[in-house]
Amino acid sequence: MTTWFSDTCPCIIDVDFSVPQQTFLGWTHKCEIHKDLPDASLKGQIIAQNAIYKIPNDGNKAAKATNDAAKKTEMNRINALGPGVWNN
Ligand SMILES: [Zn+2]
Q1: pLDDT digits (tens, 9 = 90+) for 29-85
Q2: How far is CA 6 from CA 20, 50, 57, 77, in A?
Q3: Which residue in 26, 48, 69, 76 is deepest, having the highest Cβ count within 10 Å?
Q4: Average pLDDT over residues 18-36
Q5: Ligand 1 centroid to 7 CA: how many Å?
Q6: Ligand 1 centre and the CA of 81: distance in Å?
Q7: 88 pLDDT band (50/70/90 cuts)?
Q8: In this structure, are residues 27 and 84 in contact, taking their beta carbons and an 8 Å threshold?
Q9: What is the rounded CA–CA span in Å between residue 41 and residue 59?
């Protein structure tokens, strides 16, 4: 089991990455834009949102820096929308 922190939203989920289907196991935090999603669709939506910022890992430092900045901007935008919900 891996606790996965998205780098484009503040969601924190537990995923079993050892199996091909990468089974969703649970969540610790749902961010403001994902807080109303049912557990069954949470992982897919987080990964889809994260994938918007996926770039080739080709060593292009300028492209990576631009992409990192865009991800940080998106993270800050979502954080500013509200606190999301914590699973206690
Ligand atoms: Zn999220």
Answers
A1: 999 999 999 999 999 999 999 999 999 999 999 999 999 999 999 999 999 999 999
A2: 19, 7, 18, 14
A3: 26
A4: 96
A5: 9
A6: 11
A7: confident
A8: no
A9: 33
11 φ/ψ angles, rounded to the nearest 5 degrees: -65, 145
| End-to-end CA gap in the chain | 18
CB 40 within 8 A of CB 25: no
**Edge-to-edge strands of the sheet including 23-30?**
2-5, 12-16, 23-30, 85-86
According to DSSP, the residues that pair with 23 across neighbouring strands are: 16
Residues, Cβ < 5 Å to ion ligand 1: 9, 11, 31, 34
Q: Give me the pLDDT at residue 6, please.
A: 95
